[in-house]
Amino acid sequence: MSTASATRGVNVTAAGVLELLERGRTLSTPVLRSAVERLAPPMDTVAAYHFGWIDAAGRPADGDGGKAVRPALALLSAEAAGVPPEVGIPGAVAVELVHNFSLLHDDLMDGDEQRRHRDTVWKVHGPAQAILVGDALFALANEVLLEQCTVDAGRATRRLTVATRKLIDGQAQDISFEHRERVTVEECLEMEGNKTGALLACASSIGAVLGGASDSDADALEEYGYHLGLAFQAIDDLLGIWGDPAATGKQTWSDLRQRKKSLPVVAALAAGGSASEQLGELLAADAKNPETGAFSEEEFALRAALIEEAGGREWTSQEARRQYATAIAALDKMDMPDEIQRKLVGLADFVVVREK
Predict the structure, then answer these.
(1) Which keywords does this chain's UniProt record carry (predicted)?
(2) Taking Cα atoms as reference points, which of 89, 94, 92, 75 lies closest to residue 137?
(3) What phi and psi values does residue 260 have, to the nearest 5 degrees?
(4) Which of 3, 44, 81, 286 would bridge 213 by S-S if both were Cys, CB 3.0 to 4.6 A apart?
(5) Is 356 part of a structural domain of the chain?
């Protein structure tokens, strides 16, 4: 068996990672479109807008459909189990449907008006459609898997259902944190493990499960995906405060505007010291004033500066690297082709070095 430590010395180029992402997108999109076409009007149109296939007026569009990390992982996991990547396509589509179900609902709950550089579904089509289409995408995800009519499809559906429940748990935790003055680092990591790690864990194993992999091999791939998800979320938390709006498609200080208790914030509050104390006082005052939309840009900039001064930014960067290392180490627990292991490492590299 090749080891992750050995494969880390043989880098997959950035171009190679982009090819993996494009392969995942190319193989899964036709099946994804076919699934969405099953929805009753106007849900089919609303979903097509969300995926970037049409604009708000219904005209064909070539919108940003996201990074396609999850489909790429699903196809790679099939190859890790020794079967063709095409075996993982139903899993790639199902995971992408669940992911987008969560985005539709999250945008509405968070009040986000922009995603991928354009208006969100609830902003264009209304809250009711955002809820309905999200529910429909979740139902489609299970339908796409179960219509394979195999024992392994049933195993895959169970893992997807558990991951979805954890994802919803994570969103509930995230919302509850917004109304608390203090959240521990451990609580934040648990929430992010549910909200992001669970579905990436499922994406990293579902193709292998569809290909007949053992539970132990699927569990090893899930462990890789779970910690990759935590690394991904740590980077996302950094971008949520310091990301360039031109790259992220979101407002400046996005997470601060939403009162999110993300890792940089929680780590800064736990650090102690004058910057930490000042930040805590400001956030406590914010909690008594729901009108953060009235804040000036300078006030948001002050909070971001205090988080950085208290060490929240650096701690989160280090946590992303720690979670990355744990993810890579999990690959040693499964015997897979060296080439596939290098590609999984390459995708992990992509996740922790990004600007959006």
Answers:
(1) Magnesium, Metal-binding, Transferase
(2) 94
(3) -70, 135
(4) 81
(5) no
> pLDDT tens digits for 81-119?
999 999 999 999 999 999 999 999 999 998 888 888 899
Structure tokens at 315: 């701690």
* Cα gap 101→95, rounded to integer Å: 10
User: What is the rounded distance in angstroms from the CA atom of residue 168 to the CA atom of residue 191?
Assistant: 10
For the stretch 142-172, pLDDT in tens is: 999 999 999 999 999 999 999 999 999 999 9
Displacement of CA 301 from its chain's centroid (Å): 26
Taking the C-alpha atoms of residue 252 and residue 244, their distance in angstroms, rounded to an integer, is 7
CA 340, chain centre distance (Å): 22
CATH code: domain of residue 158: 1.10.600.10
Confidence class of residue 249 from pLDDT cuts 50, 70 and 90?
Answer: low
Q: How many residues does the chain have?
A: 356
Tokens of residue 12, six digits: 């997959």
Q: Is residue 320 part of a domain?
A: yes
34: containing domain: 10-349
- Kindly report the number of other CB atoms within 10 A of residue 244's CB atom: 12
Instruction: Tell me the C-alpha to C-alpha distance, in Å, between residue 259 and each of 129, 133, 280, 303.
Output: 26, 27, 12, 11
Q: What is the pLDDT of residues 209-242, one digit of tens each?
A: 999 999 999 999 999 999 999 999 999 999 999 9
Give the up-direction half-sphere exposure of residue 51: CA atoms within 13 A in the CB hemisphere: 29
The answer as to whether 269 is a domain residue is yes
